[in-house]
């Protein structure tokens, strides 16, 4: 048995090769007799990936050569003479970016053609072809041209050098242990393959909180191992990035300041960057969390966020590196002070700096103005900063969404975010087109997500949380994919290709976020989590804290007025949304307590009071969770028994958590308000 699961690249998974597989195999083997390889292809792993797939999936060998013949799988690069004008037109070639590809069946040659704009494009075409075969689609009908939507498609690991993972729920770090980088050739190779197979092209391997030994990662002490890791990743078109501490010149460089305007500091960074590029010529760049949650930054020296980011950006520019600067900047506060609203912070700090950032600086903005709650409005910075490159930051790791104990498939949440119309310059100004740079014609942009990976056998703790990893990559590549289609693709490649099982697991995945939302904090409330861990309920756990996370419930009402006449947060949006959110009739109900302070007796659209809706949401979502648990029991004979049992165990823990959430939150509201449940269900 493997040391770890190969997830959707486990080509020998018998649960995914049931009905229809044998006939499909016969046909495939009849149709394709050799792999015809463009001599311009230099990366040996490319054809190896295809051959390995064919061997493990079909248990046959199809020889590869540079020969051209019929009945072939032809693999080529658009610009090479191998293909020139033969199967693709000049026009098609011109449209192919380096990561783009074409896959099409050529009737007259009885062959399938995979052609990439470069070797990277070819790599993606191979993995796409493999996925199509696993889904057993009719390859004779294929004719697709694909390009990734986002130039940067990044994973952010929050791994510490001691091997722990901040907000990690899947074991220890894949990269670090005892302050060392642990190169595990086999696993890192598979890590890279898995990432590439879903289109991810960059990874930040260390935590944005760069503490203890981590600031030393950029010193020569670690560069050999980093270079080794980078070369494993490179074969799969993945660039290595590092998180850095803004104070590095002081912490590791021995300078007496990290002031970005100080020339000693600038030279120090330039020298460090040049050492890194000597060892890793395609190094991606730095990610920085500055002036945030005890991390120092330019504000320490009275400088702006742009001063800090640009200084590092300039150091990276000669090497085509990028500087990714997080917008997660806010002040710790006194809960007694109602005029300060943390939701406003990022916009208040960064919007005035629009136009002041270097071209290779990118602002990485969390999806919402607070912090990865189960539901938040989309950050108003998207669509407002016209002159600034942007990366959308999502959270795959389930910090606030159930710790990979509770099932919470985030595909539907991410779809709402990337599909949000910011109403910049009128309509159809979607987040997806802002972050990829197309809307404002920015040179670079993309998407990043906090990883949910660790060294667990199944990578993600909960087997079904693998679907989040998968969905993130697929949506980063193509935000127009439907979340259910992605879920189905994942299920068919990893769990089962049985129709009923697929249908049922996709159904569970698709409803799991809404269920989780309703038994925890519906209507945009958020923050009723246990402080510190962020698992389980604690209705006032964050109420009298420094974190700016208050709902200010009393015996009559709850919520924060964030409208234009309240804290003014809603005024940070384009007019359309300011009006929508300000007005109670048009404010989406699932966000109503994010934007408004309401009486418990406030009548909601269904005619019931707010408090009754809160009770109903909790009681119903708990029942739905139980139904989902039973639905899983029906999978017993349909999927791998090990996976079945491990997921079943998670559902048992989820049931306890859901019951706890239901009863604690409902009882909290009952005790505050004195209003009972109209159906007389038990409150405590
Ligand atoms: O909300 C916080 C998390 C921290 C995290 C921080 C961030 C890495 O609880 O664990 O730190 O967000 O995004 O920087």
TrEMBL record:
InterPro entries: A-glucoronidase_C_sf (IPR037054), GH (IPR017853), Glyco_hydro_67_aGlcAse (IPR011395), Glyco_hydro_67_aGlcAse_N (IPR005154), Glyco_hydro_67_C (IPR011099), Glyco_hydro_67_cat (IPR011100), Hex-like_dom2 (IPR029018). It comes from the Bacteria. Its EC number is 3.2.1.131. The chain crosses the membrane at residues 112-133. Keywords: Carbohydrate metabolism, Glycosidase, Hydrolase, Membrane, Polysaccharide degradation, Transmembrane, Transmembrane helix, Xylan degradation. Residues 460-681 form the Glycosyl hydrolase family 67 C-terminal domain. Coiled coil: none annotated. Residues 7-128 form the Alpha glucuronidase N-terminal domain. GO terms for molecular function: alpha-glucuronidase activity; xylan alpha-1,2-glucuronosidase activity. Gene3D superfamilies: Alpha-glucuronidase, C-terminal domain, Chitobiase/beta-hexosaminidase domain 2-like, Glycosidases. Residues 133-459 form the Glycosyl hydrolase family 67 catalytic domain. The active site is at residues 293, 371, 399. It catalyses: Hydrolysis of (1->2)-alpha-D-(4-O-methyl)glucuronosyl links in the main chain of hardwood xylans. GO terms for biological process: xylan catabolic process. GO terms for cellular component: extracellular region. Belongs to the glycosyl hydrolase 67 family. Homodimer. This is Xylan alpha-1,2-glucuronidase. It comes from Gracilinema caldarium (strain ATCC 51460 / DSM 7334 / H1) (Treponema caldarium). The lineage of its organism: Bacteria, Pseudomonadati, Spirochaetota, Spirochaetia, Spirochaetales.
